[in-house]
Every structure is written in structure tokens, then in C-alpha cells.
Amino acid sequence: MNANDELRMKKLLQQALPPVESNPEPGCDLWPSVLRRLDARAAAPPWFDWALVAGLIAFAAFFPASIPVFLYYL
Amino acid sequence: MQNEPSDILNEFRLGDLAAFETLFRLHQRAVYGWILRIVRNPAVAEELTVESFWRIHRAHARFQPSRGFEAWALRIATRAAFDWLRTQHPETELPAGLQAPAIADPAVTDEIRRKTAQAFQRLPPRLRIAAVLAIIEDQPQKDVAAALGVSVSAVKLRVFRALRMLRKDLQQQGITP
Fold this sequence. Notes:
The structure holds two protein chains of two kinds.
Chain A: H1 3-16, H2 31-43, H3 47-62, H4 67-73
Chain B: H1 6-13, H2 17-39, H3 42-58, H4 69-87, H5 110-121, H6 125-136, H7 141-148, H8 152-172
Helix pairs in contact in B: 1-2, 2-3, 2-4, 3-4, 4-7, 5-8, 6-8, 7-8
């Protein structure tokens, strides 16, 4: 593809997909949504908590005799 | 690009929510506009702006105030937009009425424009982002490079590869650009 082809392709692309208007604004204030997202993610347990629970369940499945020990320490 | 007092940047780095809100208010339009230019869908751009600021907050401890907030925020926003583009089906139609009116070239028919837009949607997201920002939105290549976390040469290469793939796709449909 030479320089002329490149220029033609650029012009065609600009015709097919015109630029977005300048200085677009969101339709509403997004701060409440950001706060909700922060709260939701903060409430979700981190992945290593789930990994620990899965590990304990697997351990209890393989060694059922350990269940009373776990219950004792809860 | 906005300049904010360094104490706000330092407070944000330490996790202060009020400082984060100040930075959000200062930069949400820039981040939203940047994302909209990439995804070209206002509803998705709003959603990704929220996602980007959530990622920004999560990464506050890694923020370096000396490098400025907006460039860092745009880089995170670009990554969020890239992640979204990767999940999209290439044939997803662009919403109508978003773009500024183009000066129509009578030699380019509506059919060719439509097929070009569809072919563009089929490009790999990595190339599409570089091309949409550098060619369609006419953003400075150094800004595009900073947002993508690559060199200016890499942006030029991606744009060239995008145009070459687009041309090949159109040629396969019998269109000679």
C-alpha cells in the first residue's frame, strides 16, 4: 500500500465514520454511579477469601475427621 | 488539560474520597469524551466512564502525582474501552445520530460507507483504537501513544496495519478504495 492508497483509505474512513462532536458530555451526573460501584466492590469478598473457603471445604471433604476441630475453633 | 493542586493529587494517592471526587468532577468530561470516541456509543461510554473511575480509585496507591492525573486517567480509560471492544461482536451496528455531520463526497456511495464502517468494526480492537483516535478523531499521535502505553512509532504502525487490513477487506467485497 503506497502513500496515495493510504491517503485514500484515510479519506474513505473519515467519510464512513465521521468524528464525534467536540466536547461531548455524559447525559447525567455519573458520580452517584461511581459511588455505588465503589460500595458494591468494597462489599464483595476478595478472591483469596473465596479461595480459602474452597480450600477448607476440600480439606474437610478429604479429611472428615477434621470437621469437629474446625467447629471447635469457629 | 486541567491542572490540579498537588495537595489534591497527594490526598487522592492516599485514598481520600473527597480528593477523588474533586478529580472526578474535573476530568469526567475528558474521560467520557475519550471513551466515546473509541466506543462510539453514549450509553456504553457512560458505563465505561464509571468503570474507569472505579479502576482509577482502585489504583490510587500506584498513582504518581508528578506525571499528572489526566494522562494517567485516559490510559486507564483506554484500557477499559479496549476490554469492552474485545467482548463485542464485530457486526454490532453503531448507533445513529452520534457523529458530527460529515462533508459527503459524492463519489462515495452510502453502500460503500456502510461497508467501510462494517469492515472497520471487524478490525482487531488494538488496531481499531489506534485508527479511530488518530485518523477519525484526529487526536495527536503522542496523546494516542500515551493513552495506549506505546511509542508514537507503534501508533503509526498500528494505523498503517489497520488501513491495510481495511483495504484488503473492502477489496474482498469487490470495493476498490
